[in-house]
Design brief:
Elements (H helix, E strand, L loop, with lengths): L10 H33 L9 H4 L21 E2 L40 E2 L18 E3 L6 H7 L6 E3 L2 E3 L11 H11 L10 E5 L5 H7 L4 E6 L7 H7 L4 E3 L14 E7 L11 H9 E10 L5 H4 L7 H17 L2 E7 L2 E6 L3 H5 L66 H21 L10 E4 L6 H5 L6 E7 L6 H6 L4 E4 L12 E7 L1 H5 L5 H11 E12 H11 L4 E7 L7 E8 L11
Parallel strand pairs: 1-2, 6-7, 6-9, 7-8, 9-10, 13-14, 13-16, 14-15, 16-17
Antiparallel strand pairs: 3-5, 4-5, 10-12, 11-12, 17-19, 18-19
């Protein structure tokens, strides 16, 4: 072998060059191992301070840090500017111009990128007072808590609400029920007897106004999700939650609503201004997906009873007749039947009979049957498709008339539990029993649970809704949240007669600030910390939590200590407690948010 210049290469020259390289490699490996040992030994020295009073009481000796504990530096979060008082990050009107006007899709969820996320505490409005307690809150709220005059001026003649002194009063009126919502629902119950006997338990109200319909149904044993989009003036969802009525921000537009298929027993629209017959009836297809077989869709307002109302709708009788006929045709094609109709209220029922759905498989039929390309329950940033989701024939007990009536259905193992990994009737019963024990323990730790101090509750990562079921006799309601990245158990929650939504806690929740009295999570950070930065999750929890509201965090000691440290910078007071079984691996952190007011000026 020769060099390029022709000089011979001797074998021992090659060997002599390999030796220094080998020595260098060994030295580098040894040095890396040494550095790694130093790092690991130092890592075991890191520790978080104990939760609350120990740091404030100099007489107490500091706890010896546990090996491997997490080091989190205390961070003080700044206040957001004063005009962030109603900030909704993923439905922010300040960002609407960036998105399409098509089907009002700009009003759907559009969350800011990470570099635009706010790292500040959302302030309450000037003059904010602690909310009026339930059930008085159903009829009145403090004006300064929801200081919007526009809706009062526009809707006072329809008796939605009226301002008197320092309060908004809610007479229970609406566009289609100026004589009061109770009379309106009485008429509806005459058309749907199942609303009286426990058959109908869950409902969704699209375009809910100030949620008077859902509020009245609570007294009749029916739990309603009131839905309305974020807007600049009306703040419908904020009014609903201030009153203590379940509600979320949302709009039927281009994306599926974050609810499973075959979930609601009833859907309602009272002059909600949704153009049901446009775009091939695609909005009706989404209602069809969410309704369980045998469920009811109730419509009052155009074009129902057009013969008597068309003059007041600024249209012609011919146009309204055409619109009603088109609506009826679309509903029939989607396997709805006209169930009952009287005066201004029309009721359709989603058929359970498979023979109608088989017709959707015929070529050139509209709407066609949805193929298997998109799961019926996939409903997190999932486009609404121009096809009908056909009920799965493997379920024999998912139709409304096959479910146990309320309240028996609450503790009856739903058929869909078998679709959950590890799910079974036995696992469901065990979970149900476990949460009864846990809820009893929680009431000792937070005596406000079960009193009028806590009304709006969220279980941030439920499995089967066990926490909500265990608190069913308390004067509160629970929004059961299922992670869009976890096992799909939300259908089970609805089959029990409870309500909930899909959500990804890497993003902001679809609600206004200061809307929940109690937030509960069970292992959320353990499950999601690899995706979601803890700081942003905690800031979002602070945004939606009311002043004086509580947080129950059930986590490993590792995350309990980390959250306790960060919570000091959010004006929370926290204490660490034992679980009901005194487990060393799992602890409970109880926190309460303090009431504070902005010291900053508006800047948006």
């Amino acid at each position: 072998m020769k060099h390029k210049d022709g000089k011979p290469i001797h074998q021992h020259d090659k060997v002599s060059r390999k030796v220094p390289m080998a020595i260098m490699f060994v030295v580098l490996c040894g040095f890396s191992f040494y550095l790694g040992g130093i790092f690991c030994s130092e890592k075991e020295k890191y520790a978080t301070n104990e939760v609350a009073e120990a740091a404030e009481n100099p007489k107490e000796k500091p706890a010896i840090p546990a090996a491997g504990a997490l080091q989190i530096k205390a961070v003080k979060f700044d206040e957001c500017p004063a005009d962030f008082q109603d900030y909704t990050p993923c439905t922010d009107p300040k960002r609407w111009k960036k998105f399409s006007l098509h089907r009002l899709s700009f009003m759907e969820r559009h969350c800011p990128p990470v570099f635009e996320k706010k790292e500040c505490l959302v302030p309450p409005p000037d003059g904010y007072k602690l909310p009026i307690r339930w059930p008085k809150s159903k009829d009145e709220c403090w004006y300064r808590n929801v200081p919007y005059d526009w809706i009062n001026k526009q809707k006072s003649n329809q008796h939605w609400l009226k301002k008197e002194g320092e309060k908004f009063l809610f007479p229970g009126g609406g566009t289609m029920f100026p004589n009061g919502v109770s009379e309106y629902i009485d008429k509806m119950q005459d058309l749907i007897p199942g609303m009286k006997d426990g058959t109908v338990r869950t409902a969704i109200d699209t375009g809910c106004g100030v949620a008077s319909w859902g509020g009245d149904l609570l007294d009749r044993g029916i739990l309603t999700v009131s839905l309305a989009p974020r807007d600049n003036h009306e703040a419908q969802v904020q009014f609903a939650l201030e009153r203590g009525i379940p509600a979320v921000l949302g709009i039927i537009s281009t994306q599926r609503l974050p609810f499973p298929s075959s979930s609601f027993d009833m859907a309602h629209c009272s002059r909600c201004l949704i153009p049901w017959t446009e775009f091939g009836g695609i909005y009706l297809l989404e209602v069809h997906r969410m309704l369980r077989p045998g469920g009811f869709w109730v419509l009052s307002g155009p074009p129902v009873n057009y013969e008597n109302h068309w003059r007041g709708w600024n249209t012609t009788i011919e146009d309204q007749k055409t619109d009603y006929e088109k609506l009826q045709e679309l509903l029939t094609s989607m396997c709805f039947k006209l169930y009952n109709k009287k005066d201004d209220i029309a009721v359709w029922q989603k058929l359970s009979d498979s023979s109608c759905y088989k017709k959707l498989e015929t070529p050139d039929t509209y709407p066609p049957k949805c193929d298997d390309g998109t799961e019926p329950d996939l409903a997190w940033y999932t486009p609404i498709r121009p096809c009908a989701v056909v009920p799965d024939q493997k379920y024999k007990k998912i139709a409304l008339d096959s479910l146990a009536k309320w309240p028996e259905r609450l503790h009856t193992a739903p058929e869909r539990v078998s679709d959950v990994r590890g799910g079974s009737d036995g696992a469901f019963k065990h979970d149900d029993s476990k949460w009864k024990t846990r809820a009893k323990h929680y009431k000792k730790l937070v005596p406000a649970i079960g009193t009028d101090k806590i009304r709006n509750v969220m279980d941030m990562n439920t499995l089967y809704g066990g926490f909500a079921a265990a608190l069913i006799d308390a004067p509160l309601w629970v929004m059961n949240t299922v992670s869009s990245y976890s096992s799909n158990t939300l259908g089970v929650v609805y089959d029990r007669g409870l309500i909930g939504t899909y959500h990804d806690w890497c993003e902001a929740f679809s609600t206004y600030p200061r809307t929940y009295d109690l937030l509960h999570l069970d292992g959320l950070f353990t499950a999601e910390s690899h995706r979601c930065e803890m700081k942003y999750v905690l800031l979002e929890m602070d945004r939606i939590l009311r002043p004086n509201g509580y947080v129950i965090i059930r986590e490993s000691s590792y995350f309990v200590d980390a959250v306790a440290t960060m919570a000091k910078g959010m004006k929370w007071g926290c204490r660490k407690e034992e679980t009901e079984y005194g487990s060393e691996q799992e602890k409970i952190l109880i926190c309460q948010k303090k009431l504070w007011y902005s010291s900053k000026q508006s800047s948006r």
